[in-house]
Every structure is written in C-alpha cells, then in structure tokens.
Write a structure and sequence with these properties.
single chain; mainly alpha
Length: about 230
C-alpha cells in the first residue's frame, strides 16, 4: 500500500533527466528559503526523486552551489574592457559588483576561502582583467594580487551590507527617529555626528560604489607603484 501511495504522489512529476532541471529547482528553493537552508535531501524531495539519484548529478551542497554560480556567471555578459589599465580595472570590478548585486547570496558564498578560483572561466576572465590592469598600471604580480583582493573585499562588503540592510532598519532605530538619528549622543563628545542628524541616513543610503571604486583603484595603484623597486 505504501508503495502504491508513493507512486500516486509522484505521478505527473517529470523525471530528472538533466542537470539544468536540478539547478532550476535549487534556484527556486534558494529564492524561497535562502541558500543556508538548502539541502540535498530537500532538493530531492522538490524534484520527486531519491537522494541517491540526485547524488549522480551533484556530490554535495557545496558542489551544487558552485554549479549554480558557474551557470549564472556563464549567463552574465562580459563588458568591453578599455585599453587604459585603470579603467580596465574599474570596468571589470564593476561588472563583478553588478552581477553579484543581482544575486547577493552568491557573494556570501564566495566569501569563503578558495571559492573564487572555482567559479569557472567566465568569472575568472574578470579577475584576470583586474590583475592584468594592475600589472599594466605598474604593479608587480604580487602587488596585483593585493589590488584584486582589496577590491574584492570592498565590493563584496558593499553588496552584503546593502543586501542585508535593504528594507530592514536597525531594530533600535524607529522610522520616526530618522530626523534625529544621533539625537541621543552628546554634542560635546560627538559634535560632528550630532550636527549631521538625519542627514546621516540619507547620505549613507546613496549609491557611491563606483565613485569609491575609482578612488580606491587610484589609491591602490599609486601606493603600489610608489613602493615598486
């Protein structure tokens, strides 16, 4: 009887015939519940198959997440890279930012050490462009790695902060307090912060990523080339 009921409950479900079906189902679950709650067992249930069947296609949750990111990266169009080294770095880094901003959960996964080198050729072409631009701008190969790492931290940090704070103000700051954001601070100890008041909220919400990126690139290259033997 149990087997008959199981057969009926799965009637009409399409068989898992491709990796594309698995990735599409994984994206649905991530969009609904978040990537942290995704499990191979949950994905198998979503597809109506056993976990053993699913393991023929993906080895683990980590493997599944990487496959999702690679597939996504392959669909993101690569920008035309300028010949100027500084602009090449800016355009390549901004392309990484824009791609991850549309899929912020991927940025969180890629913060783990070792993930960047496993994201596939499409994403690595942008990393190559940044390193190449840094070398062309006068950096040594080692300094070029530091340039990329610094820009990566800046970019991922900006994405995660904005994603987590979007529509979610701090619990101890009510909407009615926005005009007096620093009203409880001492004007003697914090004269500049209290003078800003509600302007802090408005100013900090502005999208200044590209402006900061250009300044960051200029500073990194200037510092690297000034210390190059």
């Amino acid at each position: 009887m149990v087997r008959r009921n199981e057969s009926r409950s799965r009637a009409g479900r399409p068989p898992v015939t491709s990796r594309a079906q698995i990735l599409a189902a994984a994206r649905r679950l991530i969009d609904r519940d978040g990537w942290e709650k995704l499990t191979v067992r949950q994905l198998a249930a979503e597809l109506g198959v056993g976990t053993t069947t699913l393991y023929h296609h993906v080895r683990s949750k980590q493997d599944l997440l990487l496959l999702l990111i690679r597939e996504y990266a392959d669909r993101v169009p690569l920008p035309d890279l300028p010949s100027d080294p500084r602009e090449r770095i800016v355009v390549a880094t901004a392309a990484i930012h824009d791609a991850l901003a549309a899929w912020p959960w991927a940025a969180e996964i890629l913060t783990a050490d070792g993930f960047v080198v496993r994201v596939g050729d499409s994403a690595l072409r942008l990393v190559e462009a940044i390193v190449e631009g840094a070398v062309a701008g006068g950096c040594t190969p080692a300094q070029a790695v530091y340039v990329f790492r610094s820009l990566w931290y800046y970019t991922v940090g900006e994405i995660l902060v904005r994603a987590r704070s979007a529509g979610r103000p701090p619990e101890d700051v009510r909407p009615v307090d926005r005009d007096d954001f620093f009203a409880d601070l001492s004007t003697t100890r914090f004269p500049h912060l209290t003078s800003l008041g509600g302007e802090w909220v408005t100013l900090s919400a502005r999208d200044t990523y590209l402006q900061g990126l250009r300044a960051f690139v200029d500073g990194l290259l200037a510092r690297a080339t000034s210390t190059t033997p």
